[in-house]
Amino acid sequence: MLKWKDEYLIGVPEIDKQHEELFNIAGKAYAVLKDDFSVDKYDKIVAILEELKEYAVYHFRSEEEYMASIHYKKFFSQKLEHDEFIKKVNNVDLRKVDEDQDKYLLDVLNFIVEWTSDHILKKDKGITS
């Protein structure tokens, strides 16, 4: 499971705080996945997806405004990755979610964990270096 570590800090407090919140959303998804007492997790999964989408839009807008303010040279490649993330979350097939909730939740969780950690460590760190 993805846990917040200082290695994810990029040195911009507002963005660091927002990145940590993305990890918190992943933690909520993990808690739902591990909840053996819930037979039907569909509503919880949909709520997590909505929260992820809304927060990602907010975070990406904030991060892009910061990058623009410092004239970051890789702004457009960053924006493209952000847009692809939002597109993937927007294109979730809720029928597939309902068919195999735990599998789909694990897929969503893996996507969040891999994308977020990779993006922060390989792309966002470049904003301040």
Automatic annotation (TrEMBL):
Organism whose genome encodes this protein: Clostridium aciditolerans
Q: Which family does it belong to?
A: Belongs to the hemerythrin family.
Residue span of the signal peptide, if any?
Answer: none
Q: What is the official name of this protein in its record?
A: Hemerythrin family protein
Q: Which UniProt keywords apply?
A: Iron, Metal-binding
Kindly list the organism's lineage.
Bacteria, Bacillati, Bacillota, Clostridia, Eubacteriales
What NCBIfam families does its record include?
Answer: bact_hemeryth, hemeryth_dom
Say if the entry is tagged with keyword Oxidoreductase.
no
**Residues annotated as transmembrane:** none
Molecular function in Gene Ontology = metal ion binding
Q: Which Pfam families match?
A: Hemerythrin
